[in-house]
Amino acid sequence: MKQVNLKTICVLGLGHIGLPTALLLQNKEYSVVGVDVNEKTVNMINRGETPFTEPGLANLLKHKNITAKTKVENADVFIIAVPTPLNRSLNVADLKYVKSATDMIYPHLKRGNLVILESTVPPKTGENIVIPLLEKSGLKIGEFYFAHCPERAIPGRTIYEMINNDRVIGGFDKTSTDLAHKVYSSFVLGEIHLVDMKTAEFIKLIENTYRDVNIALANELAQIAEEFGIDVWEGIEIANKHPRVNIHSPGPGVGGHCVALDPWFLIENSTKGKIISMAREINDSMPNYVLELLKTIIDPLTEDSTITIFGVAYKGDQSDIRESPAIKLIEMAHNLGIKIRCYDPYVEDFQFELFCLDEAVKDSDCIVVIADHKCFKDISPQKLGKMMREKNLLDTRNILCHEKWKEAGFKVKCL
Ligand code: SAJ
């Protein structure tokens, strides 16, 4: 491998991926600076406070040896870990943060530097967008190095998965790939697979697309099973005993910053993708289906009705509300004039009012479980039933003990 200095690292974006990455790198031979445009985040990190919750993060921050800043500094390695939102009107990746991070780097780019893109991007973004922007430095690719190493860790287990999952690295050339491999092998225990740049971009996207399509299948099966009066959960559980079947779980829709977006990135420059776009439509329409189910439970569902939402996070045991299906459900219910009262013991900031448990169920006509928080299993239906106007439960995640709720006098419906 070419002898290149890899001592100082500048990580751009101190969010769910960038911050843990910076903290895992600092434990090794590197001197790490973290950069974020959000001054509040930077100040919190410098005080050793966690800007978001993630198991193991507080402990890493307690022993931190990184400095957070709002401006980029010269470094040997630059890692871009900024979000790639979806442009909702066009269903294409919005690369504004990737571009602005790249713009912050190129004035500091020196011969022999390595730039790594971790952000999820459509195939060929490295080649067509990021490298040309970096060349505004006056250097040509080959004089500096570039690799894509997509993050693949799941929120709630980010740090464990960052260390233990396999990684994929696709460099512009062999030197770029080898240098990026050296950086990641300092903390990754999983196998590191070396491919070309566009294949690395593709692999990341097909992982989340696989999940989205599989969830859409489960959601469609739930709707077919409803027509036949079949318990879809029992059906899927037993079908999955087959050694080559792995159907995912139905639910109120797909949230989060990845699975609900990445399938669009995969097909935005392609003429194909029918199954993929159909899966997106099925998953995006699940809140509409939940509302239809509610109309069969509360008849008529009117402006006098009050619905209690249990869990507004996009998935269980998380405070993350990004793209949560609860948001669409609440907005549609509000359009109909229905009163909504949300309860989520994990979430502090939400665009709709959050209530304590008692307030959320007071005079309610139905509880709808949206996020599968384990703590909901400990709630006593006896006590809640006394405070509600009607004892109805719609469990879109199949996480509660339905027998217990029925014994307490509830009418129970499961997705
Ligand atoms: N969901 C279902 N049914 C299921 C599984 C999930 O309805 O059977 C829903 C969840 O409730 C949630 C959404 O799908 O609303 C997505 O949740 P998730 O747990 O599938 O995934 P994320 O978005 O939290 O993280 C994914 C992970 N990708 C894969 O597992 C293939 C993670 O490894 C990626 O790093 C992450 O996307 C990312 O950043 O791309």
Automatic annotation (TrEMBL):
Belongs to the UDP-glucose/GDP-mannose dehydrogenase family. Gene3D superfamilies: NAD(P)-binding Rossmann-like Domain. GO terms for biological process: polysaccharide biosynthetic process. Residues 308-402 form the UDP-glucose/GDP-mannose dehydrogenase C-terminal domain. This is UDP-glucose/GDP-mannose dehydrogenase C-terminal domain-containing protein. Pfam families: UDPG_MGDP_dh, UDPG_MGDP_dh_C, UDPG_MGDP_dh_N. It comes from marine sediment metagenome. Keywords: NAD, Oxidoreductase.
